[in-house]
Amino acid sequence: MLLVAEDTGRNLGCYGDATAHTPAIDGLAAEGARYTTACSTAPVCAPSRSALVLGKYQWTVSSHHMRSTLLRPPRLFTEELREAGYYVNWSNKTDFNFEPPASFADECRDWFDDLAAGKLNGRPWFLYHNFFNTHESQMWPEEWEKNVAPHLAPDERCDPASVTVPAYLPDTPKVRADIARHYDCLRLQDRQVARALDALERSGQRDNTIVIYLSDHGRGLVREKRWCYDAGVTLPLIIRRPGKIAPGTVADEPVSWIDIAPTLLSLCGVPVPDDYQGRVFLGENRNPGERAYCFSGRDRMDEAFDRVRTARDRRFRYIRNFFPQLPYAQRNHYMEKQQTTREVRELGAEGKLNPAQAAWLAETKPSEELYDCLADPANVRNLAADPAHAGTLAEMRTALDTFLEESGDTGTLHERELIARGLVADRLEEYGARIEPLPAHLRVGPERTVLEMPEARNR
User: Fold this and answer.
1) Which of 123, 204, 212, 339 has its CA 20 to 30 A from that of 234?
2) Using 50, 70 and 90 to split pLDDT, how confident is the model at 402?
3) 160/190 same-domain check
């Protein structure tokens, strides 16, 4: 059973967040393993999910641009499961940057009641469910009022005064309100996780079932979703495997979402395709040793182009900005709907942000960033120029270079080249139509966002 949360970082009780009300998720962690260095391959949904279901990095197969469409995707891991005799129900959310073939699942519908009633016990099964409750849109006040508030009693709603504001955001009522709404959404997500676990309990198959809980990327806030810092790509990973994983296990080995598909296949006794790029990190056929680094990255986000790659080990995160001439804070139509985004922009224009908060609004980016994620979990102290960390910087720089060469990163290519090769559909005009300038007093960098690589190179 694979349970995937949307836009959910490690703001959970089992990860030490005292504000979060997540008893079902915390209980799952208490019964299995909680991973502390687990990373998605992208800080945004579709590229992250693409790597998850294909067992291949998004930039290897050319599904790396957000809201692109890969025309001939490789086989999904669920097709391997079905071929081996598994019943696959992928109940919702096929947001992979490509249209999955009909062969990827037996059914795509709610399976909770059938599972609880024992109707799925005829053959081995794999069940997937996505929890939309925590999507960034549910933090918008109007969506929260419509979809979240009606399901919470007044005393269940998070008090904005109780939340912790990360160092990179201003501590204002509007920012606190956004964060509090996210905790409300988390409470609803936890109820749905509880429903899935209860259905499994009632099915009588609890002790025969591996449960994996993870998230696609971090919260929908500035410097979290869409950015390659820990808050964007270092995420919850919880695995319960009765009789095989000791309750209360805490694992710090680096695990990437690229490892999920081969590990699931291995645990199910299904051969892992030779061209998968991940490693089996759990079970009897576990690959020897441990992963040294998790690699992640971002490319075009709807109407805003960029290219960033990052490596994370147990302690440090190294980030390379291939287009430092582009600001972090390019306008994104969807992101601008979040009141925290508007608050950061307005306070920045008024000169009311401290250096850690104002860094996101810089006209340019450093070409390299290095963070000690244990000492600085908010990733606000860039150590790339610190001589004391020169050895770590050089080591991680080399590791990223080697990885990008070995993985065949098509992010080096102009998107029109991918289109010309017949790899992806041409959606540039669609996203070019979204480009609008920010109000003049809020402008950072170019007047309009950069959609394509050649334009970025000419900045």
Assistant:
1) 339
2) very high
3) yes
Residues 198 and 87 placed together within one structural domain of the fold: yes
pLDDT at residue 312 greater than cutoff 80: yes
Does the pLDDT value for residue 39 go beyond 80? yes
- What confidence tens digit (pLDDT) does each residue in 321-331 have? 999 999 999 99
Let me know if 289 is exposed, middle or buried by CB neighbors in 10 A (0-12, 13-18, 19+). exposed
**Greatest CA separation for the chain:** 64
* Whether residue 148 is found in the same domain as residue 231: yes
User: What would the pLDDT profile of 439-456 be if each residue is shown by its tens digit?
Assistant: 999 999 999 999 999 999
Helix (H) or strand (E) holding 34: strand 33-39
pLDDT digits (tens, 9 = 90+) for 412-426: 999 999 999 999 999
The Cα-based distances of 89 to 2, 18, 55, 106 in angstroms read 11, 35, 19, 6
Contact present, 177 and 160 (Cβ < 8 Å): yes
What range defines the domain where residue 157 resides?
Answer: 2-292
CATH number, domain of 50, equals 3.40.720.10
H-helix or E-strand containing 214? Answer: strand 211-215
Q: Among 233, 264, 292, where does a domain finish? A: 292
Domain end point (choices 292, 310, 332) = 292
Question: Three-class SS of residue 215?
Answer: strand
Helix-strand-coil split of the chain, %, nearest 5? 40, 15, 45
Together in a domain, 192 and 262: yes
Task: Using the predicted structure, report yes or no on whether residue 121 has a pLDDT greater than 90.
Answer: no
d(CA 274, CA 149): 48
**Residues with catalytic function:** 45
Q: How many angstroms from the chain centroid is the CA of residue 194?
A: 22
Distance, in Å, from the CA atom of 221 to the CA atom of 86, rounded to the nearest integer, reads: 38
